């Protein structure tokens, strides 16, 4: 659409992205024009100091919860799932809720010893945020986590590693996995099973902002509008297998399609100030201590 604009894309995990952007801002040098990440809370924290306002003309097509102060925009609608090894977990044992997951593992600790994987919340920004959202959604979260961890958790910093280990059989089951990645892999991996939990399914949105000091602000705004546009969202949904945050996209890989599949179980994480609560140093430290106690880490 804009052949004169060249996009340079740097891919890194959420914690690396946050630290790199902070250090580049402190050094006063060049940095990315646009920041885009699945770690919704840390991006909102950065945006408070470093984002410029931009009222995208595509904003009217987005849910109200997906935009913060005309600075941060949700760009995707990605359910968070369980994964399991289809060869090694009998269909009758596959859990369909967080409580069922905890019951399965607590009842077969020998089978699941060191065979359950999830994010290391100290190393992964996304992992920390999802754990906090679980805590908010489930009044018994730490009890549930303790039951899931009875056989010992194998924690990782990336979804890719977790999927690889479950697929190989090194681990048997994983939770708090980004569904878009799991669905993409499952198309070519017959060993990988996916569960959308029926009690609640968190929905993450990759969020983005344009930097205050962006060297190419106009190009950044064009990129922003393109990603949020019907055409851009169609590419995300139907070529990149990432569910669209719009409801007017071809096919089922958008908000409407996900709602028909999961209904009221869907719990979208809003792009708002509530994301910042557990980033306060004292509160974050206390939360990690509680998580480590429950997870036996």
UniProtKB/TrEMBL annotation:
GO cellular component: outer membrane-bounded periplasmic space
Keywords, alphabetical: Signal
Top-rank taxon: Bacteria
SUPFAM superfamilies: Periplasmic binding protein-like II
Transmembrane feature ranges: none
InterPro entries: SBP
PANTHER family: PHOSPHOGLYCERATE TRANSPORT REGULATORY PROTEIN PGTC, THIAMINE-BINDING PERIPLASMIC PROTEIN-RELATED
Name of this chain's protein: ABC-type uncharacterized transport system, periplasmic component
